[in-house]
């Protein structure tokens, strides 16, 4: 199965940079400045947040931390959901197997040497690959260091998932395994349950309105496409 996953990941990379994870086997996965993803779930998250804050002009505070977590969640969901949709299989993205590098611009780069599949039904495999193996640890590291609420982090993860399916529907509309049912399943269970309202209409795409705020509005003239503030009602908290 490893041999079939590498071509799948190569094909998936054509969808866009968020869907890319280099599957090339390497004697030294750290070659070229890559580092284990697991370091982001400890003190290593600080350097990444600082870089995101520098790019945004927001400093290394809560806005940058929220944006960094959302960006990492987007990368992880995109690879897992994309493989499920295009190939009916989910790669093992465990922190001990996945490597990352922060480029000067754009999303973080991922390296997954010698990929192997996760067992089980697709919904469970996608959930494990991202929510269990990554988001739990990532969210804890960001929450503790930057005092972001679980609601913000869960909402970010949901937004990242919906962003991934939106791109897939646009660029791979005839994917062998339709991704929308997978997304609906993931949004209906922890940790994404209750994070927002998801709608899908065949031929029109998807819409999502979240129930928490990613804090991006604190930048000048900036809101997200699924921003809760666009439909905010009196008494609702961001």
Summarize the entry for a quick read.
With 238 residues, the protein is mainly alpha-helical. It has six helices and five strands. Helix 2 packs across helix 3, helix 3 runs antiparallel to helix 4 and helix 3 crosses helix 5.
Description:
The structure is a single chain. This protein is mainly alpha-helical and 238 residues long. It has one domain (3-192). The chain is 44% helix and 8% strand. The protein is built from 6 helices and 5 strands. It starts with a helix and ends in a 28-residue tail after the last strand. Pfam families: FhuF_C (PF11575). GO terms for molecular function: 2 iron, 2 sulfur cluster binding.
Strand arrangement, major sheet: 1-2-3
Strand coverage percent = 5-15%
Characterize the biggest β-sheet. Answer: 3 strands, antiparallel
Uncertain segments: 230-238
Q: Any idea what the radius of gyration is? A: 17 Å
Number of domains: 1
Question: Any idea what the shape is?
Answer: globular
Amino- and carboxy-terminal Cα gap = 44 Å
What structural class do helix, strand and pairing data support?
mainly alpha
Question: N-to-C SSE series?
Answer: HEHHEEHHHEE
How many E strands? 5
| Oligomeric assembly | single chain
Helix percent band: 40-55%
Continuous helix count: 6
Mean pLDDT: 88
């Amino acid at each position: 199965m490893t041999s079939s996953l590498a071509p799948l990941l190569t094909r998936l990379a054509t969808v866009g940079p968020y869907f890319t994870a280099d599957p090339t086997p390497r004697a030294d996965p750290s070659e070229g400045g890559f580092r284990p993803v697991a370091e982001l779930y400890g003190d290593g998250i600080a350097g990444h947040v600082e870089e995101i804050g520098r790019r945004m002009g927001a400093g290394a505070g809560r806005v940058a931390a929220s944006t960094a977590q959302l960006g990492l969640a987007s990368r992880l969901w995109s690879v897992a959901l994309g493989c499920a949709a295009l190939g009916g299989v989910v790669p093992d993205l465990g922190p001990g197997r996945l490597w990352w590098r922060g480029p000067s611009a754009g999303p973080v780069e991922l390296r997954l040497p010698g990929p192997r599949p996760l067992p089980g039904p697709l919904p469970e495999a996608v959930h494990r690959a991202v929510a269990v193996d990554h988001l739990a640890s990532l969210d804890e590291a960001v929450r503790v260091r930057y005092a972001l609420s679980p609601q913000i982090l869960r909402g970010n993860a949901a937004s990242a998932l919906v962003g991934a399916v939106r791109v897939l529907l646009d660029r791979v509309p005839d994917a062998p395994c339709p991704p929308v049912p997978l997304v609906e399943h993931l949004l209906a269970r922890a940790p994404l349950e209750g994070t927002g309202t998801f709608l899908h209409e065949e031929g029109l795409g998807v819409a999502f309105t979240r129930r928490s705020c990613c804090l991006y509005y604190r930048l000048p003239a900036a809101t997200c496409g699924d921003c809760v503030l666009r439909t905010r009602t009196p008494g609702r908290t961001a």
